[in-house]
UniProtKB/TrEMBL annotation:
InterPro entries: Acac_CoA_synth, AMP-bd_C_sf, AMP-binding_CS, AMP-dep_synth/lig_dom, ANL_N_sf. GO terms for biological process: lipid metabolic process. This is Acetoacetyl-CoA synthetase. It comes from Smittium mucronatum. NCBIfam families: ac_ac_CoA_syn.
Length: 481
């Protein structure tokens, strides 16, 4: 409760707080927080209340502020409009996903992630939503699937990382649950891998709509996603959303099919943010975030490819996290789809490190607990697979074993912050070596970087575990060519 008091003391706009406590602890919690109400007293307030009176507001009336995750830098402070979000959510929920009033919609999410707002948006069509507080994997991996059976959930939303984890631990919900009400499984936060499609249809339910979806906090909705009227293709997002003029562009601004490029939206859409909070009068930060690369055209910062046969979409990673060795641009997902097939590897992260204006690809791997062989033989296997299935230019310059892979609380791999850290650390080391005319030991350079590198706390505030980021400063070979 002390933490809650501290937070509330710094929020002068909050007039009342509602404390929900276990019944055996109510006496020791509610009274200790100033201007608070217990859940029970809140219910009592409504007993003699008059009918609600609704006030008409403009389409652009501010609805809420959302903050981007901060994985690519300082979080953006996005002010969303009421009409735009309402129209967008009703369109996606009803017209595209086919949700109806009788549905029971669940999405495992924190209240700080846009999927919370997306879930609550389901109330606008009259369906029921399920809110859950707790671990998605405890006390057993079946805790969320228990909810499906107990509450009759029809739409189940989660992250790609959660599905991958269930597959990794060989948990099969269909063996322990009926899941008879389940109609759709939605997945976001990162691209859903092809093997995860196999897992869901083999071990969750064979006739569900499996929808990989992608949008962003920037629009609190989707650019591309699932559609109840279209077939599902393994490893692909089904469709571009209705009313969203999404195209894939190359660096010259040409629309391309079957090649990798930037996700752009060529026409305005109703759920664009009104503005960034505390932006200047010219909306400079807003314009810089979306309209710098292609003037007048929204560039989301995602790397994608449209399948010419299915019109499905493959999300390949963040545009600023794309890999570009020797002028060959490709997405991190292309590497992950190969690495994930190695039993020896539990997880991985691939980034590009700038070395004297040229980029080298670095692949970090966390090996499985039962892997005890040397890294040299594993590295050779990995390089051979990438060379064979992609090309020699996709092969990483270095493959390095690490203790852990950094993620946000929502299950997104943190590529950009690691890329910036490694680029800055290399630059710092190079300048120090230059100041000594090269007459210096590697050990001294390593110590200098450790003592003088200043980690940008704001840039990594979304990291679940700070040590997952700082570990990269302790890899000496990344400080030298």
């Amino acid at each position: 409760m002390e933490k809650i008091k501290q937070i509330l003391s710094n929020l002068p706009s909050v007039e009342k707080s509602i404390i929900i406590s276990p019944k055996d602890r109510q006496d020791e919690t509610s009274p200790s927080v100033e201007n608070s109400l217990s859940w029970e007293s809140l219910e009592d307030l409504g007993k003699d209340a008059k009918s609600l009176e609704y006030r008409s507001l403009s389409f652009d009336h501010p609805l809420y502020i959302l903050f981007s995750s901060g994985t690519t830098g300082k979080p953006k402070c996005l002010v969303h409009r009421t009409g735009g979000i309402l129209v967008q959510h009703k369109k996606e929920h009803t017209v595209i996903l086919g949700m109806v009033e009788e549905d029971i919609f669940f999405y495992y999410t924190t209240t700080g992630w846009m999927m919370w707002n997306y879930l609550v948006g389901g109330l606008s069509i009259g369906l029921s939503i399920v809110l859950f507080e707790g671990s998605p994997l405890g006390p057993t991996p079946g805790v969320l699937w228990d909810l499906v059976d107990d509450l009759g959930i029809t739409i189940f939303g989660t992250s790609a990382k959660y599905i991958q984890h269930l597959e990794d631990v060989n948990y099969k919900p269909s063996q322990s649950h009926s899941l008879k009400t389940l109609k759709a499984v939605l997945s976001t936060a990162s691209p859903l891998k092809p093997n995860s499609f196999d897992y869901v249809y083999s071990h969750v339910k064979k006739d569900v709509l499996l929808g990989s979806i992608s949008g962003g906090t920037d629009i609190c909705s989707l650019f591309v996603g699932a559609c109840s009227a279209l077939p599902v293709y393994r490893g692909e997002i089904q469709a571009i959303m209705l009313g969203m003029s999404v195209e894939c562009w190359d660096n010259a601004g040409n629309s391309i099919i079957g090649q990798s490029g930037d996700l752009v939206c060529t026409k305005p859409f109703p759920c664009m943010p009104i503005f960034f909070w505390n932006d200047d009068l010219n909306n400079s930060r807003y314009k810089s975030a979306y309209f710098n690369k292609f003037p007048g055209v929204w560039c989301q910062g995602d790397f994608m490819k449209i399948d010419p046969k299915t019109n499905g979409v493959l999300m390949l990673g963040r545009s600023d996290g794309t890999l570009n060795p020797n002028g060959i641009r490709f997405g991190s997902a292309e590497i992950y789809n190969i690495i994930d097939r190695f039993d020896e590897i539990e997880d991985s992260l691939v980034i590009g490190q700038l070395i004297n204006e040229n980029e080298r690809v670095i692949l970090f791997v966390k090996t499985s607990n039962n892997y005890s062989s040397d890294m040299e033989s594993l590295s050779l296997k990995i390089k051979k697979a990438i060379r064979t299935e992609l090309s020699p230019r996709h092969v990483p310059a270095k493959i390095i074993r690490v203790d852990s892979i950094p993620y946000t609380g929502n299950g997104k791999k943190i590529e950009i912050a690691v890329k910036l850290l490694l680029n800055d650390a290399f630059s710092l080391a190079s300048k120090y070596i230059g100041s000594k005319n090269g007459d210096i030991s590697k050990t001294e350079v390593e110590q200098y970087v450790l003592n003088n590198y200043k980690l940008d706390e704001k840039a990594i505030q979304s990291v679940s575990n700070k040590n997952d980021i700082t570990q990269f400063l302790n890899i000496p070979e990344l400080l030298f060519e």
